[in-house]
Amino acid sequence: MRRSPRPGSAASPHKRTPNFYSDNSNSSVSVTSGDSSGHRSAGPGPGEPEGRRARGSSCEPAGSPVVSEEQFDLLPTLDLRQEMPPPRVSKSFLSLLLRVLSVLLSLVGDVLVIVYREVCSIRFLLTALSLLSLFLAALWWGLLYLVPPLENEPKEMLTLSEYHERVRSQGQQLQQLQAQLDKLHKEVSSVRAANSERVAKLVFQRLNEDFVRKPDYALSSVGASIDLEKTSHDYEDANTAYFWNRFSFWNYARPPTVILEPDVFPGNCWAFEGDQGQVVIRLPGRVQLSDITLQHPPPSVAHTGGANSAPRDFAVYGLQVDDETEVFLGKFTFDVEKSEIQTFHLQNDPPTAFPKVKIQILSNWGHPRFTCLYRVRAHGMRTSEGAGDSATGEPH
């Protein structure tokens, strides 16, 4: 340990400290160090400074080199450093040991990372396999229980030869069916060609003639008309009538002459109030009446969904020339469940010719406000003006 110079000493403050580790150290110092170590074998006493003991020693041999006080103070430090092992060996060993440990730690860390990755990949694979198995199980269960089985599913497996045989047999059956259809088509074509002219004539004949196939004398086109004085009044609905309906050219109510027209369609009828009324038809001449025909559209084509406004019970009278004498010709019932055209035979025996005929409606099929009459036909035989006057009938 370096000591500070004493006060009053002649040592210069810029004096360099000798390098005892250098190979170029002074030989005199080495000799002095050997001599001083021989003189200090006993060691200093307790509490006595080593420098003081050296200065107080007077047993130095004559002629020995003189050692300065500063060099003498550095001798214990030199001895301690010579006794310590060289520090370079320990540092190199420690550095090597640290390097080995770092390499081992890095290897261990790499191994741990690799093991963790492998474990994570195996866990992912196991999770994916489990999810895939669950999905396949759910799909299989749905196919088995939720999807209905096919009705035409084959119950047995066919070989390729059997399959070709069935296809061949079905093809033959189709060819046979096609041949039968061709034959039937030829027969139909021949029948159609043979009967087309006859069928066309029959259709045109039926369209041109009346379905009743009897002459109608209650037809306006041949001279029939309505006696309005002896006919019931038209039905007027005060609740639904508009102001302009009271004008003749805007009045939608049909007059009684509509029953003398051949046009019969829903709504084209003469309506009178209530379920009882009458209409008197003036014939084109004196006619020996034999039948009366009433026509009413069927309930299937009615806009109201029924035929409750149709006449039900009615009576027929023949009027003489004086318009006062009435001859009862029969009482009948029009059934709406039957045909829309119904013909009734009159009780005109012996046959009597009348210029007028009266149709008296006694009831309808349930309509509370009005009764509709679509068409009335009078059948019989027309006589001359002087014929039939002698015929008498039962007065009403």
From TrEMBL:
The regions listed as transmembrane in this protein's record are: 96-116, 122-147
Where along the chain is composition biased (Low complexity)? 22-43
One Pfam family of this chain = Sad1_UNC
Q: Where does this polypeptide localize?
A: Nucleus inner membrane
| Stretches assigned to the SUN domain | 223-383
Is Transit peptide there in the keyword field?
no
- Coiled-coil-forming residues are 160-194
Disordered: annotated segments: 1-68
Give the record's keywords alphabetically: Coiled coil, Membrane, Transmembrane, Transmembrane helix
By what name is this protein known? Answer: SUN domain-containing protein
Q: Which gene encodes it?
A: SPAG4
